[in-house]
Amino acid sequence: MRFPCGVRGTCATVLVLSACHGPEGPPASETTTSSATFCERVLPRVEAFMARMEEEHPVPDDPRYGGTVVVSAGVEIPGGMNAFTADSDEAFQHQLNVNLMSLLRYGPDLELEPYLAESWEVSADTTAVTFHLRDDVYWHDGERTDAYDVAFTYERATDPETRYRNAAHWQHYVPGPEGVEVLDSLTVTVHIARPHAEPLNPWQAVAVMPEHLLADVPAGELGGHPFGTVCPVGNGPFVFLEHRPNESWTFGANPAFPEGLGGRPFVDRYVFRRIPEPATLLAELLTEGTDVYLGPPLEHLDQIVGEPHLDTLSFPSRGYDFIAWNQRRPMLADARVRMALSMALDRQGIVEAILGGHGRIAHSTVPPFHWAYDIAPEGAVVYDPDEARRLLEEAGWTDGDGDGIREDSAGDPLRIQLDYALGSQRRSQTAEVAKAQLREVGVDLVLNVFGYTTLVDRVTDTVSRDYDAFLLGWANDFKLGDADLFHSERIGQPLAFAGVRNPELDLLIDTLDLISNRAEARPLWHRYQELLIAEQPYTFLYFPDRLVGYNRRLRDLRMDVRGYLVNLGDWWIDPAGR
Amino acid sequence: MIPMILGRVALMVPLTLGVATAVFAVLAAAPGDPATLLLRPGVSPEAAERIREVYCLGCPLAERYLRWLGALASGDLGWSFTHARPVADVLLSALPGTLLLAGSALVLAFTLGTAAGVVQAVRHRSLLDRGLGAASLVFYSVPSFWLAVMLVVVFSYGARNVWSWPVWFPASGSRGLDHELLGPWSALMDTAWHMVLPVAALTLVMGAGVARYVRTSMLEVLGQDYVRTARAKGLPERHVVLRHALRNGLVPVVTLLGLHLPLLLSGAVFVEVVFAWPGMGRTMVDAVLTRDYPVVMAASVLFAVVVLVGNLVADVLHAVVDPRVGDG
């Protein structure tokens, strides 16, 4: 039999191409082999050590011990327990509160407190910080966590080959091996290139990684290492047991977790389940298939509180929603116009109606949990449509033809394209309200909806900047850094959405980044908030609260701005409810 | 038949490449890439650019296409950006869930649908026929997503919390929390219990379509002269239907089965989403939303192959069942 010409030609092409491929990412065959080898090597050691620890640390005679707690959400934990690739809240929550440990952590008062490091000193000239580690923390395979792990983590995190996501953490540190010094097995010094604000903040955000397991992995391959999602080995209160991709993560209580840090968790097992559909999440909470439902929409809250065995929690998030106005567009270049747009929006009404009161209006990027937050900043934007109309008139926008839409002197209408993304009912509804309320002051807001990735790609395109305005959410770190957003030197960078050029704002951003003394910085933070209000690069909409539905059999839950798993080790299950 | 099969198999290669090329072109035209999603406070644009560089996301289109094609030809499906694992691992971990769910639904849908269609045809215009017809119309028409959610509302939440039925089913997942601690038989029952609602959602919709096809086909066959002759010879009605009419009546069903075979690989996205069932459908959708190109491309190629194989199987089965169909 003869094959048709086209088939023969195709086969020949395939044969040629198979000889000249370039893999994208680590070669699959090598990684597969090494991942099997890695997991085969580490998991039995973990099992053996944990078995020994169970014998040496039996479960205390306390009725609070026991049971399995299940937390469910619509998302996975991308990157798993790999601190070098963490860039989602779920990843941070599970690395820092469940399986791994950071050197420091924030306490309930948002002051840094010891965790893996039991003490620390900052040098007088603030160019070095020395950490003293606890001597009773062990990796789950039996190796003690020591200063070499910290040094390894730091060297890798500051290595560009690692592609560590939050590079800004180390902006003012000395990178690489020159920046870290192991003084002894439990003492490590990290060198700071330039004194700056909140120098210790990165050490509560980065989980320390095991040097003895990952030291021989090249920096460029750390991102794809099986440690993250296949067989992580931690040192935190919970031991990794199983990961079923896109389905669940299961962790077991660590019997050897130091008593000084709370000791063995009360629950035997913690399971994180991914359930994409909100209706199913609600059904699982109602039928006790999950104990915690993260992020229910407002319309689910009534049904949750209507069940006697369920309740809800609301706590501040670290994010805010905003409308960015592209000042590169002539119609939005005038600060009076931007101020008018903000004053025309009833943000408190939006919080009440769309967020059900679960949130507070935002005045600037500075969140309510920030130590320098101004409750009543000078010039705070209030809902005042009449003043909005006056400002627009003053800026030259009048309704000459009586059609309800203002025009400039050339007759061009004040028509603004507002882009927003699918997937957030809160933002969709906010966009609709904004359209209606701006119409009342003579602004024609045209809504354009995009897929999330498409929108992000559109607004970060530094070449075209083809948008008038867009509505998005933003997540703050505990240390605020708005340079990427508002500094004029970065106006050509992807995150400079608004195109701000304000020399005083530049100076404040630069100065605040370098002042480590809070007393000195406080008046500057006040001025920063005032200036952001006056400039209105964004309409700062609100800081939404995070909502959680949970089963009342769970006790001692604490969820706050630090996250929803911040005291997971203290959760216990009412014995009657097990 | 052999030459027909061999010819069709040979044509699969260019057809699959054509599908893969089309998918690649569409993905390349879509805005955004995985590096875009990384941009957030604290993430330097340099980090995003570094990722683009490592994964050749900024390379010329032709170069990316040829690199991918070359890797595929040597069996390398690539590396998943979002899962940080080989694509083969990602797909292989999702495949068993889809095979189990879709395979069970296929078997049940075709068995029950065929039975319902035969009964309707034999009891033509009876109350049973009308009742089954109405039911099949409803299940064929309702969106599968809505049906899945309703099954959860009624047989999970309603059955347990509202009406306190003795039996209720879990709303999601493929296994219970203590699955690993169960013995083999209990584990099997645990999995089966979790499968009831998602399989029902798929079976009801698919089975309704099969029933309607079988009913129409059987009615046509039961009106044929040879069937009348069989009855005239005094054969029992059961014999007439099952031995003489059914084989010819199932010819379109055989074709339908072949066309549904790709479901074994592609899964049913809506059902997998509603029931949080780990499968190929959800994996594919997640990959598209996060621009995980290697997963999308590899899955597209696999789907294309399975569709082509499914069509071939349909044609072969058709020829087997109906001797009048030759090699043409």
What would your notes on this structure say?
The complex is a heterodimer of chains A (578) and B (328). With 578 residues, chain A is of the alpha+beta class. Helices cover 29% and strands 19% of the residues of chain A. In chain A, α8 packs antiparallel against α10 (385-394) and α14 (503-514) packs antiparallel against α15 (518-535). The termini of chain A are far apart. Chain B contains 14 helices and two strands. In chain B, strands 1-2 form a two-stranded antiparallel sheet. Chain B is globular, with a radius of gyration of 24 Å. The interface between A and B is large, with 89 and 81 residues.
Question: TL;DR of this structure?
Answer:
The complex is a heterodimer of chains A (578) and B (328). With 578 residues, chain A is α+β, with helices and mostly antiparallel strands.
Features:
heterodimer; A: 578 residues; alpha+beta; 12-stranded mixed sheet; 20 strands; 29% helix; globular; B: 328 residues; mainly alpha; two-stranded antiparallel sheet; 14 helices; 73% helix
Low-confidence spans of chain B: none
What share of the residues of chain A lie within helices?
Answer: 25-40%
Q: Which chains have the largest interface?
A: A-B, 89 and 81 residues
Shape of chain B: globular
Structural class of chain B: mainly alpha
Mean pLDDT of chain B: 84
SSE string of chain B, helices as H and strands as E: HHHEEHHHHHHHHHHH
Q: Mind summarizing the main beta sheet of chain A?
A: 12 strands, mixed
Secondary structural class of chain A: alpha+beta
- Report the end-to-end length of chain B measured between terminal Cα atoms: 9 Å
Radius of gyration of chain A: 27 Å
Instruction: Sketch the major β-sheet of chain B.
Output: 2 strands, antiparallel
Poorly predicted spans of chain A: 1-33
How many beta strands in the DSSP annotation of chain B? 2
Percent of residues in helices of chain B comes to over 70%
Taking all residues together, what is the mean pLDDT of chain A? Answer: 91
Q: What is the end-to-end distance of chain A?
A: 69 Å
Number of helices of chain B: 14
